[in-house]
Amino acid sequence: MKNLILAAALLISTLGCAQKEETTFKNEGLENVMVTKENQPITFAEILKKYEGKTIVIDVWASWCSDCIKGMPKVKALQEKYPDATYLFISMDKTYEAWLKGIEKYEVKGEHYLTSDGMKGVFGKSINLDWIPRYMIVDKNGKIVLYKAIEADDAKLLKTLEGLSKI
């Protein structure tokens, strides 16, 4: 009986500590001003609006991040397997020049934007960013259907994309 009570208490505490999966972006994140490759300001809301009606795979990365670079072949494999999705790369690079060099050096194909204030800034805080790379998926209706993955071959990420590709 003690074991049963202990197991129940452990289950309740584990479920209570589980991080809630967000399905919408916070206003502060949507209002955050980023920069285009042409060095023009754009809000995250405007970026999402550009790709309305499409499945969006968001890759939060930086050219200085070794895990991000190691993950790029997996991202390229995703792009080959799911070519109809839009691949949106949000960079946490510290400078505009470093960001552009990173895109070219690592041959990153997709839509590119640079945050203005790094991982601990407004956008990073709005998505609870604690690690990069960070992958998110937004469905055709603009709903976040995968809030957090840190590997481009994460089983949940692949299952989510597979499900969305059949719609």
Detailed description of the structure:
With 167 residues, this protein is of the alpha/beta class. It has one domain: Glutaredoxin (3-Layer(aba) Sandwich), CATH 3.40.30.10. 42% of the residues lie in helices and 21% in strands. It has seven helices and seven strands, in the order H-H-E-E-H-E-H-E-H-E-H-E-E-H. The protein has helices spanning 2-17, 27-31, 44-50, 66-81, 96-105, 122-126, 155-165; strands at 33-36, 41-43, 56-61, 86-91, 111-115, 134-138, 144-149. A seven-stranded mixed sheet has the order 2-1-5-4-3-6-7. Helix 5 links the parallel strand 4 and strand 5 (111-115). It is globular and about 40 Å long. The termini are far apart. The model is unreliable at 4-19 (pLDDT under 50).
Number of helices: 7
Sheet of most strands? 7 strands, mixed
For the record, give the distance between the C-alpha atoms at the N and C termini, rounded to a whole number: 48 Å
Elements, N to C (H/E): HHEEHEHEHEHEEH
The residue fraction in helices comes out at 40-55%
CATH fold-level topology = Glutaredoxin
Net shape: globular
Second rung of CATH, namely the architecture: 3-Layer(aba) Sandwich
Q: Oligomeric state of the chains?
A: single chain
Going by helix content, strand content and strand pairing, the class is alpha/beta
Low-confidence stretches: 4-19
Mean pLDDT: 89
In CATH, the homologous superfamily goes by the name Glutaredoxin
